[in-house]
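FORM 7B: Structural annotation worksheet

SECTION A. Query
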Amino acid sequence: MQITVDKTLEILSKDFNLSKEDILKEGLKYFLEKRLKEIKSEIYRITGKYKISSVEEFETLYREGKIEEKDSLADFHKLDHLEFKKEEIERLLREML
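SECTION B. Predicted structure
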């Protein structure tokens, strides 16, 4: 028998004497923090690979001819996207406080 999300919320709310909103808020916070940790880990991997700290530094490496786009463009785009996602999640977490 499958329990629906609403039913699960109802059970948790009753068992832990918490509002459904508080349970959802905690769940969202946990989800966002977990996602943020994964994103930061991937950012660390990419920035470590090129010995940079941001996508702006990546652009500088291109302008100065220190790396070739053909060898690193996928990482550049991924880092740009990850930095955007990181900022978005951090903003959402701040707004939840």
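SECTION C. Observations
Residues 20-50 form the longest helix (31 residues). The chain has a mean pLDDT of 95.

SECTION D. Sign-off
Analyst initials: ____
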